[in-house]
Specification:
Two copies of one chain form a homodimer.
Chain A: H1 4-19, H2 26-33, H3 37-49, E1 53-56, E2 62-65, H4 74-81, H5 103-120, H6 124-129
Helix pairs in contact in A: 1-2, 1-3, 1-4, 2-3, 4-5
The first copy, chain A, binds a DNA duplex (30 and 30 nucleotides) through residues 3-5, 25-27, 36-39, 41-42, 44-45, 55-63.
DNA sequence: TGTCATGTGGATATGTGTGTCCTGTTTCAT
DNA sequence: ATGAAACAGGACACACATATCCACATGACA
């Protein structure tokens, strides 16, 4: 349902949010989030292209958030690496349906819409402030 | 988000519900739902193994619903071919999290739960009764 | 200006979902 | 019995997501 890439990207930005605004190296993030380093590198390049993170080479470089955790939502991250495929027209391309979906696809898209909305309404800052005994990415 | 297989399976059972209780051949369903015949055959075999449809060989045979459209939900079909992967334990296997998910995975699973619930509450019969000008799988 | 830390990007490997094809098996009608 | 209709199932093909490796480019700092 959610791709591995989305899962990895979310872990990475949460890690960055926790340490914001200090940049973290790809290796550090990979170790903390239990993601293969080389693959995470690709995922982060994707996030950079979409303006989610900043990548800085050289000594003292690393990865940092392009926006503050207050201004970055789960949806921003999801959309950057693996957008939610909303159903906007009839998948069977039936002329009579067009943009007015049938009951089946209407309900499927409603589910996607609800997910999209829920993700749009949650910022990274809210994730960290959540009164939850389990802290994201932390074992204590 | 939804696999092709789920989309195909849903089209097939909707077609069967429309013509219920008359059995339809795989070829008929494939033509009506615009699904590759050979692949649909595999999908239907999966649905049979999960008790969603009945398959009858020989002349006059074909595919029919194992339950009435009133007793078959979208979730039944989705679960049969590609179950919604609820997040029940911490994907990072953090000991401190265990079953108590962190804010991130809590929200991801909440989205999956909502989808599951919505699909559980809709039967095939309700899809067909929906006062929607676009009739599922029909162009008129 | 040299050196090291760090990200960049291409080539390649692997697994799985999707899709095709062909032969076999079952069932019914005649 | 025979033959046609229809599903069953294995082998194979292909695309894409995931993952790895390595040579290279870049930036900071001494």
């Amino acid at each position: 349902m959610f791709s591995q890439t989305v899962e990895y990207a979310l872990r990475a930005v949460v890690h960055l949010a926790i340490h914001s605004p200090r940049p973290q190296t790809t290796s550090e993030i990979a170790a903390a989030t239990q993601v293969p380093t080389a693959y995470l590198s690709k995922v982060l390049q994707g996030l950079r292209e979409k303006g989610i993170v900043l990548l800085q080479r050289g000594v003292g470089g690393g990865v940092s958030l392009a926006r503050s955790p207050q201004q970055l939502t789960i949806l921003d991250v999801v959309s950057a690496v693996d957008p939610i495929p909303r159903i906007t027209t009839c998948p069977l391309d039936l002329k009579a349906h067009g943009v007015r979906l049938c009951a089946l696809h209407r309900r499927m898209d409603d589910a996607l819409l609800h997910m999209e909305t829920a993700f749009r309404e949650t910022t990274l800052a809210e994730l960290l402030e959540d009164p939850n005994p389990s802290v994201p990415l932390c074992d204590r």
